Amino acid sequence: MFRKLRLLRAVSAVDFGAPSHRTVPRRFKQGIQEEPEEGRLNLNFQIEPNYLYYSRVNPTEAVHIDLDDFDFVLSNNIDALLPTYTIAHGFLEGGGQTWIKRLVKELLIRENCNIIVVDWHGGSDPPYSQAVANIRVVGTITAHLLADLARHTGEQRLKHVHCIGHSLGAHLSGYIGYALEKDFNLRLGRITGLDPAEPHFARAQAPVRLDHTAADYVDVIHTDASAFIRGGFGIVEKIGHVDYYPNGGSSQPGCDRAVAQHISGSGSFFRGIRKFLGCNHIRSYNYFIESINSKCPFTSIACNSYEDLKSGTCFECGKNGQHCLKFGYHGRELYDHLIKTKEISPHKNLVQYLITGSDEPFCRAHYRITVDISNSTESKRHGGEVGQFVFKIHSTRDGKGPHSGEVILNEGGYHGPDLQYRAVVSGHLVSHLKTVDIEWRYRSSVINPLTWRLMRSPRIYVAKVQIEAMETRQSITVCPKNEEILSEALPQKMMSSYCP
């Protein structure tokens, strides 16, 4: 009782004067009674959060943490020294979301830990501006809860606490960090922002929004980072120690599918509609959840732009400041190593890019493919073609082992004699580069004379192909057998032994 009164009095002092947060939290001011009624605090406090505790002892059935409990750690027999996570949902959501259950499951598979789900569904309803104001209150209450945890952690304090939040929940996690430092001189170990919300937070500064100052390590995954007026929900700015921009950060592969495909793939009309409307936004937590226990490397690379990665200008890990980190959950390990070895400054923000697949599992390997078109007399006489190359990279010479799946290069582009084409594409991880199947797919168009083939069949003359793998740092150069012509829709095997 007295603990809850202390918490509510503490958050009543929260400053809501910042331009983006002038809305007072719903029913907050009138919701606190200074004196308890009949031995218990009577709350008319609609946004009061619920705290759901999970561990390996109770992996699926949550224990509700009582805010009236003066020492919830002892009452619930919590090992305060274990790695501890908080998970905060976003707008229009609650603590029982399917993605939160998946995240809890993967974290508990990964390690023996404490997980506290911050369920603030009472304050996440419309209007959006009200929910934006409400997360400050919830963040402050959660900070007080974690401060009580810190009473049992000794010198470790809260270095082992990792707050994970999606959309508004990302900024809520930032408020936890700010309140801990301001009120208790405590510092969070890590915050992961999963596509932090953009409306009301764009171009704002800390402590209005999540920022790298909110914890020792702040990593941010941007998946819907385009302006809100263009339909984006996520923030564009670089705000963490490490900012990941999968597929450029704004348009995720597979999210351009029709609504019927999303409904069919989700197995539910309502889940399908939600996935259709917010596909890019929700990819952030799908990617992060997969990264926890994936055997796939999930490699990201620091580049000046996504275009530099796609063109192959930025590809080699460790060269010219192109630092590679594991994406998502495991990213901090190598980041800390780079800091320790002074390869990067702790004040430097890393901007990481990677390419994913369009379906789960999303993790892909990166291949830089360079195609040299022949300069032979026959190639020049035939001229250029419009189409695309389709590769399948094999780990065995006979092509019967694991392979990359179809990898498409220069879709719909023009390919002329004696020219070179290079791009970075994604495919399934291949442990050893042995052989390559290559296919030419011709694209004709009635409005493009370059694609008209009235008297001759579509074909392309390839001299050689170089394939480099980012993850395994392998490289292979392959050639067609006996300089064979690559005809439309007729796959051809290329090997190193065929090269002159």
Provide keyphrases for this structure.
500 residues, alpha/beta, Rossmann fold, Lipoxygenase-1, 11-stranded mixed β-sheet, 8-stranded antiparallel β-sheet, 10 helices, 24% helix, elongated
CATH T-level topology of the largest domain: Rossmann fold
Beta-strand proportion: 15-25%
CATH architecture annotation of the largest domain: 3-Layer(aba) Sandwich
Strands, count: 21
Task: Identify the strand order in the major beta sheet.
Answer: 2-1-4-3-5-6-7-8-11-9-10
Roughly how many Å apart are the termini?
83 Å
Gist of the model:
This protein is an alpha/beta fold and 500 residues long.
Describe, in plain words, how this protein is organized in 3D.
- InterPro entries: AB_hydrolase_fold, Lipase, Lipase_LIPH, Lipase_N, TAG_lipase.
- Belongs to the AB hydrolase superfamily. Lipase family.
- This is Lipase domain-containing protein.
- The chain has 500 residues and is of the alpha/beta class.
- The chain folds into two domains: 353 residues, 3-Layer(aba) Sandwich (Rossmann fold), CATH 3.40.50.1820; 133 residues, PLAT/LH2 domain (Lipoxygenase-1).
- 24% of the residues lie in helices and 24% in strands.
- A hairpin with a 5-residue loop joins strand 18 and strand 19.
- Helix 1 crosses helix 4 and helix 4 crosses helix 5.
- It is elongated, with a radius of gyration of 27 Å.
- About 4% of the residues have low confidence.
